[in-house]
Write a structure and sequence with these properties.
By secondary structure, the protein is an alpha+beta fold. It folds into three domains: 145 residues, no CATH class; 106 residues, no CATH class; 47 residues, no CATH class. It is 48% helix and 17% strand. Strands 1, 2, 3, 4, 7, 8 and 9 form a seven-stranded antiparallel sheet that branches. The longest helix is centred in the first third of the chain and has 22 residues. About 2% of the residues have low confidence. Keywords: Membrane, Transmembrane, Transmembrane helix.
Length: 307
Amino acid sequence: MRNRNLILNYIFISCLAILFLNDHFFKFQYTSWFTGKLSDVVGIILLPMLLTYLFPKLKQYSVFVAGFLFAFWKSPYSENLIQLYNTVSPIPLHRVVDYTDLLVLLLLPVPYILIKNTRIIDHFAFKKINPSFVLLPSMLILMSTSNGSRYFSYVPYSGNLHFNNNTSFEINKSKNEVLLELKKRDIRVEKDTARIIAMNRGRFFGMGKFEQKNLYNNEKFYHVSDDSIKAVAFKMIEESNEYKINTLQLGDQTIWDVQFNMYSKDNNTTKVIVNSARIGEALKAEEVDRKLRKIYKKLLIEKFNTL
């Protein structure tokens, strides 16, 4: 039997409100390390309670499911799943791999205690609210967070600018025409081989063969043909829509390593999804905010929509 108090308590509602406000307001107005991590903190607290409400048999063990899902999402192993989703979805899905996000897993004992001792949340529960009024907004807020509700995130120690929300647009030209126009403007575009290979490393690993009998001797335990892997890699690179611009001048600003996905929707339309770029390091918060908005606007409007 579902315990309605799992999602009808002050703790859950407060975390949900903070998650919504942080992703849709605070991250824009107060860009910092704190607002970047706040959503993960409240999310890891409310997710196990939501899972237990939806799947009562999980009980307090939902924290392990939530922890696994969170760790998988924050790891490079989810990249192939994200790419598969982006091929069928009109709304691109992106996320930034930042292993410091995994520190919030240390907070899992909080929802564990609350779920195991429901009498605690019973004292803070709303008695006259239908769970449906909270469940639907919860799902929508979590989905919008998962799809990346921010336009960007800035990681000061790496200088990387990651675009995380609907940073896509269409150009009324064929893909070949777009590439030709970029070449005419002396903008060097190349396949992002490092990203392509990283996204498909699981496939490369599966091409080999394990020799179990050689586990305890000096013979090769794993056999793979180097020529076969290279042939597959070249084919992947040729068929991939992942591109990279090493250096791009935007007025008086220079950005580097612009990663984007570009593919043909039809013979006369090309869709571009900007993934990330690299800007200057050690910027103050107010400089980051001003510079990001300037780069974001110029990158999308001037360099692509004018092609």
